[in-house]
Design brief:
39% helix, seven-stranded mixed beta sheet, 2 domains
Length: 405
């Protein structure tokens, strides 16, 4: 069993009161909270070690470089990447996908080529590919889903073909919690020589990922979903693929030699890390990986499954409430609507009860369009949540129904 009380004590913000009530934070799919270990690591860096990284000969620069590159090694182990040359630090998942769409896309896509995504995707895995297709003349194709929010695997197999150059899919849907059969989809694509990208923003918070076992060419995630800081993320890229990609930004640190006649680019991964990086963010991400990695992940999975089952059962008892997205084996996310109450109004009233949820289209407008909804309310559960907090959510929904229903 997971010692949730002990875990909660490591998160200072969870002791806050909101409008006089204990904070019930059910919005971790948007951004998880940070444990004291992460906060202390960032503060310690700024208090004791801050300097710019790489090339500095003084002590602080060498210490900062060691911390920065140490964080890269922690990411490598967390993802089971073959080398730190395959780990590129970026601002987050959005920047990682844009990097691939611009660098790989501009050099590899052309008229007649196809990029395949699913109907479940976050805007960050839609818009960059739309832009890449507009630049290159390639075509964006979308794999359909059913009313449970499950990707149609037969349609996927039929759409996958000789024109497909890229398969870009979510590991877990942020809007519905659907867990995609990533390994099987990647394997099917690789049989045809298709390059693959997995948006892992919602995947990594539920346990370590083995990118070599998945077989994907690219995997990306954001630190703030993984109990780490904002403004830092990771692009994993298989070295053989990354080595063939042109740099997507120019500046310091991504070069070996610059003259007015031409420039020699740096080795991997620095070729894709122009300018001063988010050093403190990388240190904080490394601390988050250490903290998360020390947990019993079987116990974490069991705890999150218990929260999801309890929430599903309790929410289905709320009059007028409809669950949106009921895929089997989904992650600990529940999206829902209540008859006659707009999700934004719902979120406002819940906040007055101290309950924080997310409302809106969740940067997944095509999903909302599929279900013919303007928005949903979404509660997402993390390792620090409890069934008592689920009950507080249901009680707050009762207050909202009395006020608005």
């Amino acid at each position: 069993m997971l010692d949730v009380a002990k875990i909660r004590a490591e998160f200072p913000i969870l002791s806050r009161k909101i409008r006089g009530r204990p904070l019930v934070y059910l919005d971790s799919a948007a951004s998880a909270q940070r444990p004291r270990a992460v906060i202390d690591a960032i503060s310690g860096y700024y208090e004791q070690h801050h300097s710019n990284v790489h090339r500095g000969v003084h002590t602080l620069s060498q210490e900062a470089t060691d911390l920065f590159e140490g964080a890269r090694e922690k990411v490598r182990r967390f993802l089971h990447a073959a080398s730190t040359r395959e780990v590129v630090f970026v601002r987050g998942t959005t920047e990682a996908i844009n990097l691939v769409a611009q660098s790989w896309g501009s050099s590899q896509l052309g008229p007649g080529d196809e990029v395949l995504i699913t109907w479940l995707e976050h805007h960050a895995n839609i818009v960059p590919w739309q832009q890449a297709c507009a630049r290159t003349g390639a075509t964006l194709r979308v794999i359909p889903i059913d009313r449970q929010g499950v990707v149609d695997q037969q349609a996927f197999r039929e759409m996958l073909g000789p024109r497909t150059r890229m398969l870009a899919i979510s590991h877990v849907s942020n809007a519905l919690g659907t867990v995609l059969p990533v390994r099987e989809m990647v394997a099917a694509a690789r049989e045809l020589g298709v390059t693959t990208l997995v948006d892992g923003a919602q995947g990594v918070p539920h346990g370590p990922v083995d990118v070599q076992a998945l077989g994907c060419d690219f995997y990306c995630f954001s630190g703030h979903k993984l109990y780490g800081p904002t403004g830092i993320g990771v692009l994993y890229a298989r070295e053989a693929v990354l080595a063939q990609m042109p740099p997507w930004q120019g500046g310091g640190d991504m070069i070996l030699n610059v003259s007015f006649e031409g420039t020699t680019y740096n080795e991997l991964p620095y070729r894709f890390e122009a300018g001063t990086p988010n050093i403190a963010g990388a240190v904080g991400l490394g601390a988050a990986i250490d903290w998360f990695g020390a947990l019993d992940h079987a116990a974490v999975a069991g705890h999150e499954a218990t929260l999801l089952a309890h929430a599903t059962e309790r929410l289905q008892q709320v009059p007028g409430l409809s669950l949106v997205g009921t895929a089997p084996g989904k992650a600990s996310v529940v999206s829902f609507t209540i008859d006659g109450i707009h999700p934004h109004d719902l979120g406002t009233i819940l906040d007055s009860e101290g309950v924080a949820i997310r409302t809106g289209h969740h940067c997944a407008m095509p999903v909302m369009k599929f279900f013919d909804l303007p928005a949903t309310a979404r509660a997402s559960f993390a390792v620090y949540n409890t069934t008592t907090e689920v009950d507080a959510l249901v009680d707050a929904l009762g207050v909202a129904r009395e006020m608005l229903g």
